[in-house]
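Lecture 7 notes: from sequence to structure.
We start with the chain below.
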Amino acid sequence: MRALAVLARPLLPDFLDGYTTVIGSTVYLPDLPHRIPRDLLACILCHELVHQLDQRRFGPLFYLTYAIPPAGRTVRAVWERRAYTVDLLVARELGGDRGLSMAVDRLVTVFSGAGYGWMWAGRVAARAFLAPTVEAVASRSVDREAPYDSIIEAWRG
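Predicted structure tokens for the same chain:
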């Protein structure tokens, strides 16, 4: 992981201490698990589970398309939108419409900002790219789709 952090450093200087990464069955956290608030850790692991499922399903295609350097609109954004669906579900569960709206605002910044290497072209475009997923979360239709159905059921306990 440290070698990957060195490679990523020019674009993502905080990669090793600020980002969670999953490669295969290993989740690399930016801090020790017991130092991360329990609900946040659970949400992070649910998000990373979606990536693990995609890695298993799509194999090398996932890794190749995820690693393509950013160019304004990337396949990485598709993978991240799938995984961030979990974050939106949890935000809705914990905070209702207001929580969902706040999560969307944060994700617009994530998708259009430097943190993921500007994987989507601008805030307006990022919001439009996320809109179908946000609508599916708001309407609860995504609650019936795999893997989100199992993840949100487990979240609810």
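Points to note: The longest strand covers residues 21-23. The chain has one domain: 37-156.
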